[in-house]
Amino acid sequence: GGPFSLITHEKKPVTDKDFHGQWILIYFGFTHCPDICPEELEKLAEVTELLHKQKNKQNYPFQPLFVSVDPERDTPELVSKYIKDYSPHFIGLTGTRDQVADMCKHYRVYFSQGPKVGDDYIVDHAIVMYLINPNGEFVDYYGRNKNAKEVAYAIEQHMNAFKESNK
C-alpha cells in the first residue's frame, strides 16, 4: 500500500487519506478486459454484499475500489458506467498514466499494455485484491484462488482482530 492521488468515477479528486477510517478492498483492472476483470469484479460485488450484511458488527465501513490500469481509455465516465454493472457500492478510480503508475508502484501491481490491433489492446496486470485497514495500512491480499465467501470470511477475521486491538 501507500499514498495515491487519483480521481473518482464522479470526477472528484481523492487521495489515500480520504479513505482513512474505512476498510478498503482494492482491485486493479480495466474496463475493456474480456474475462478476468469481470469475474473478479463479480466476486468483489459478492464480497461487498456479504460484508454489508455484517456491517452492524463492525466499527468501520467497508468500501470496495476499482482502480483502472488503462487510464488512456478508462475515462471517469466509462469507469462509472462499467462499475454500475457490478455494484452500486463500488468507487472507480482513474487518473493520468503517471498517477496510476505511481499507485501501482506503491502496491506492487504489475501492468503492461499489450500490442495494439487497430485501436484495441489488452492490458496485462496483476490479479489481486488488496485489503487496507482504517489506518490506511496494508493488511492482506486475495488472489483468484479464493472465492467470495473465503475472502469475506478472511476480511471479517481481520476486522474483528482490528476491533479487538483498538478497544
TrEMBL record:
<dbReference type="GO" id="GO:0005739">
    <property type="term" value="C:mitochondrion"/>
</dbReference>
<dbReference type="GO" id="GO:0046872">
    <property type="term" value="F:metal ion binding"/>
</dbReference>
<feature type="binding site">
    <location>
        <position position="33"/>
    </location>
    <ligand>
        <name>Cu cation</name>
    </ligand>
</feature>
<dbReference type="Pfam" id="PF02630">
    <property type="entry name" value="SCO1-SenC"/>
</dbReference>
<dbReference type="InterPro" id="IPR003782">
    <property type="entry name" value="SCO1/SenC"/>
</dbReference>
<feature type="binding site">
    <location>
        <position position="125"/>
    </location>
    <ligand>
        <name>Cu cation</name>
    </ligand>
</feature>
<protein>
    <recommendedName>
        <fullName>Thioredoxin domain-containing protein</fullName>
    </recommendedName>
</protein>
<feature type="binding site">
    <location>
        <position position="37"/>
    </location>
    <ligand>
        <name>Cu cation</name>
    </ligand>
</feature>
<feature type="disulfide bond" description="Redox-active">
    <location>
        <begin position="33"/>
        <end position="37"/>
    </location>
</feature>
<keyword id="KW-0186">Copper</keyword>
<feature type="domain" description="Thioredoxin">
    <location>
        <begin position="1"/>
        <end position="160"/>
    </location>
</feature>
<keyword id="KW-0479">Metal-binding</keyword>
<dbReference type="InterPro" id="IPR036249">
    <property type="entry name" value="Thioredoxin-like_sf"/>
</dbReference>
<comment type="similarity">
    <text>Belongs to the SCO1/2 family.</text>
</comment>
<dbReference type="GO" id="GO:0033617">
    <property type="term" value="P:mitochondrial respiratory chain complex IV assembly"/>
</dbReference>
<dbReference type="InterPro" id="IPR013766">
    <property type="entry name" value="Thioredoxin_domain"/>
</dbReference>
<keyword id="KW-1015">Disulfide bond</keyword>
